[in-house]
C-alpha cells in the first residue's frame, strides 16, 4: 500500500493554491466542485481584517462559494430607517461571553478510509488537504469507530475469538493499520491541533445476549460483572494499541447510540440504558481507564453519543451520581431525530443543569444514494442550520459522518447508503465537493478552537434566517448569517461595528461578516 509513503511525501510537496472551483451540475439544484489530478479549488480566507473594514464571505445556491468582499465600514452604515417598527435587527453584545469552541471534523469510518485510499497518491493528498490543510476546512477533530460501524465492508470486532476471556486474540484490523492510522497521522501533520476520539458500535458478539452485531442486544449480565469488565478492558487495549502505532486518542465516547441498541438496528449496536451506562462508567470503564493511565487528564470521556431524544435521561442519570460523573467531561449528541427548535432547546436545558460539562455534536449526516444528491444546496442548509442552532444552544463543535463515500453511498455492510461532504469516484479518479463542504467552511475556518460565542438577540427575524456571533482568539468578531428563504433579506446589525450597519442577505445563502475588535 502506497499510503505508507504518504507521510514523507507530505513533508516535501507543495500544493498549488487558489485554484477556482470546477463546477459540475447533476440533477440537484446547485453544483459540486470537481477535483482531479490536475485541478482542485482551495479556500482563500483572510482571518483578520484591518481596522475600519468589514470582510464578507458569501456562499449561495446559485453561484457563490466563500466569495470574498472587503468593504470600508462606512459603506455599510445603516441606510435603513430604524424607527420603522418592522425592521429586522440583530443586536450583538460582545461583553456577553458564552461557550468556547472545542472543534469541527468528520469520521474516519472504514468505508471513508477505503474510499480515500482508492484514489491516486496525489488525490489522497489533495483530499486530505481539503479537510485538514490550511487552505481546506482546517478540521481539528476526527471520530474513529472502534471496529466496524455500518460504514464498513463487513461486520467484525477486534476480538472475534469466542470466549477469549483474556482478550489475548485482540488485534487491530487491517482497516486500522493499513488505512486509518496512516491517514490519522497525515491529518495530524496537516493540522497540529488535530485530535481524535473513538466510539464503539458493538462489542464482540460472544459478549452479547443476542450473539449478533445487529438487532437488539446488550452485554451479558450486568455492570460490575465479567462481561462489562472485559468490555472496559477492550477499550483499554484499543487505546493502547493505537498509542503503540503512534496515535494518541484525545477522547472516547461511552459508545455509539446506546438507546438504539436497546431497540435494535440493522447494523452494529450495543443496548445500554442510562442506568447501565452509569454503572458501567462507575464500576468498570472509569476505574479500568484510570488504572491504565487514561484518567480524566489524559482522555476526554463523552456520554450519550446518541440523538437528543434521550439526552436528558442519559445526562441526569449519570451526572447526578458523583462516582460516575467524576470520569466524564462532555455530553455528545447526534442529529437524526432532530426537530427545530425543540431538539436544540433540550441542549440548552442540559447545559443549564450541567454547565460544567461541554456539549458536542459527535455525528450528523444525510442519507440516500450519494450520486442522486450531488450538488444539493438543501443539504448544505441542513448542515448549516444544525451547526448554527447547536452553537446557539451551547454546543462546542460538530462532527460530520463518513469523510468520504463512493458514488453509491458506501461501502456499507448494512446497505445503509449515505451522502457525504466529499464523494469519491475511483473509476474516474476524481472526487466531488458537495455544497455541504462550503457550508462547513463558514464554521470550521472561521471558528478556531477557543473562539467564544457572544450573546445576540434578534427583532422581527424572518423564520428562515438564523444567526450566530463569535469572537476568535485573535479578537475578530465573526457573524454567521444563514438565509434559507427564497427572498433577499435586509438586516440592520447593532453592536458589530461602532455604528449600526445594514446588509442584504441573498436568497438561499450563508454570509460571514468579520470585523476587528478594538
Ligand atoms: C451585555 O452583556 C452584559 C454581560 O452579560 C450585560 O451586563 C449587559 O447588560 C448586556 N448589554 C445589553 C445592552 O444587553
Ligand atoms: C497520563 O498522564 C500521566 C500524567 O499526567 C502520565 O504519567 C501518563 O503516562 C499518561 N498516560 C498516557 C496513556 O498517556
Ligand atoms: C464516475 O466516473 C465514471 C467514469 O468516468 C462515470 O461514468 C460516472 O458517471 C461517474 N459518476 C458520477 C456520479 O459522476
TrEMBL record:
GO terms for biological process: glucosylceramide catabolic process. It catalyses: a beta-D-glucosyl-(1<->1')-N-acylsphing-4-enine + H2O = an N-acylsphing-4-enine + D-glucose. InterPro entries: GH, GH30_C, Glyco_hydro_30, Glyco_hydro_30_TIM-barrel. GO terms for cellular component: membrane. Residues 101-447 form the Glycosyl hydrolase family 30 TIM-barrel domain. Its EC number is 3.2.1.45. Keywords: Glycosidase, Hydrolase, Lipid metabolism, Signal, Sphingolipid metabolism. The keyword Lipid metabolism applies. One of its GO terms (molecular function) is glucosylceramidase activity. Residues 1-18 form the signal peptide. Residues 450-511 form the Glycosyl hydrolase family 30 beta sandwich domain. The keyword Hydrolase applies. It comes from the Eukaryota. Belongs to the glycosyl hydrolase 30 family. This is Glucosylceramidase. The lineage of its organism: Eukaryota, Metazoa, Ecdysozoa, Arthropoda, Chelicerata.
Amino acid at each position: 500500500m502506497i499510503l505508507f509513503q504518504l507521510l514523507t511525501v507530505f513533508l516535501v510537496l507543495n500544493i498549488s493554491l487558489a485554484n477556482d472551483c470546477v463546477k459540475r451540475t447533476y440533477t440537484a439544484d446547485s453544483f459540486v466542485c470537481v477535483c482531479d489530478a490536475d485541478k482542485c479549488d482551495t479556500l482563500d480566507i483572510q482571518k483578520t481584517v484591518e481596522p475600519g473594514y468589514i470582510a464578507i464571505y458569501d456562499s449561495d445556491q446559485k453561484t457563490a462559494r466563500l466569495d470574498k468582499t472587503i468593504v470600508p465600514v462606512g459603506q455599510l452604515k445603516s441606510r435603513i430607517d430604524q424607527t420603522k417598527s418592522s425592521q429586522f435587527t440583530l443586536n450583538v453584545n460582545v461583553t456577553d461571553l458564552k461557550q468556547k469552541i472545542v472543534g469541527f471534523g468528520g469520521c474516519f469510518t472504514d468505508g471513508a478510509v477505503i474510499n480515500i485510499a482508492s484514489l491516486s497518491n496525489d488525490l489522497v493528498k489533495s483530499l486530505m488537504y481539503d479537510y485538514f490543510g490550511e487552505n481546506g476546512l482546517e478540521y481539528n477533530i476526527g471520530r474513529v469507530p472502534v471496529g466496524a460501524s455500518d460504514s464498513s465492508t463487513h461486520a467484525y470486532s477486534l476480538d472475534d475469538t469466542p470466549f477469549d476471556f483474556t482478550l489475548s486474540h485482540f488485534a487491530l484490523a487491517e482497516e486500522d493499520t493499513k488505512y486509518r492510522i496512516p491517514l490519522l497521522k497525515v491529518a495530524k501533520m496537516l493540522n497540529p491541533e488535530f485530535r481524535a476520539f473513538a466510539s464503539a458500535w458493538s462489542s464482540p458478539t460472544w459478549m452479547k445476549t443476542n450473539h449478533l452485531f445487529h438487532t437488539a442486544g446488550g452485554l451479558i449480565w450486568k455492570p460490575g460483572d465479567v462481561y462489562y469488565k472485559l468490555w472496559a478492558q477492550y477499550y483499554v487495549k484499543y487505546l493502547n494499541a493505537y498509542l503503540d502505532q503512534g496515535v494518541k486518542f484525545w477522547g472516547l465516547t461511552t459508545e455509539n447510540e446506546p438507546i438504539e441498541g436497546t431497540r435494535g438496528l440493522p447494523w452494529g449496536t450495543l443496548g445500554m440504558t442510562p442506568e447501565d451506562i452509569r454503572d458501567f462508567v462507575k464500576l468498570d470503564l472509569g476505574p479500568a481507564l484510570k488504572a491504565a493511565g487514561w484518567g480524566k487528564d489524559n482522555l476526554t470521556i463523552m456520554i450519550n453519543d446518541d440523538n437528543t431524544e434521550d439526552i436528558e435521561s442519559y445526562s441526569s442519570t449519570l451526572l447526578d451520581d458523583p462516582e460516575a460523573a467524576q470520569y466524564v467531561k462532555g455530553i455528545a449528541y447526534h442529529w437524526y431525530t432532530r426537530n427545530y427548535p425543540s431538539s436544540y432547546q433540550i441542549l440548552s436545558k442540559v447545559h443549564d443543569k450541567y454547565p460544567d460539562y461541554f456539549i458536542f455534536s459527535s455525528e450528523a449526516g444525510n442519507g440516500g444514494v450519494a450520486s442522486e444528491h450531488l450538488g444539493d444546496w438543501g443539504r448544505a442548509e441542513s448542515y448549516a442550520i444544525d451547526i448554527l442552532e447547536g452553537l446557539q444552544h451551547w454546543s462546542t463543535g460538530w462532527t460530520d459522518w463518513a469523510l468520504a463515500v463512493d458514488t453509491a453511498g458506501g461501502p456499507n455492510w448494512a446497505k445503509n447508503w449515505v451522502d457525504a461532504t466529499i464523494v469519491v469516484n475511483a473509476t474516474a479518479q476524481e472526487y466531488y465537493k458537495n455544497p455541504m463542504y462550503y457550508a462547513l467552511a463558514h464554521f470550521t475556518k472561521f471558528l478556531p478552537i477557543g473562539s467564544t460565542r457572544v450573546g445576540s438577540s434578534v427583532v422581527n427575524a424572518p423564520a428562515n434566517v438564523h444567526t450566530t456571533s463569535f469572537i476568535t482568539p485573535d479578537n475578530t468578531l465573526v457573524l454567521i448569517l444563514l438565509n434559507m428563504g427564497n427572498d433577499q433579506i435586509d438586516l440592520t446589525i447593532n453592536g458589530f461595528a461602532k455604528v449600526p450597519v445594514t446588509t442584504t442577505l441573498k436568497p438561499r445563502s450563508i454570509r460571514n461578516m468579520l470585523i476587528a475588535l478594538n
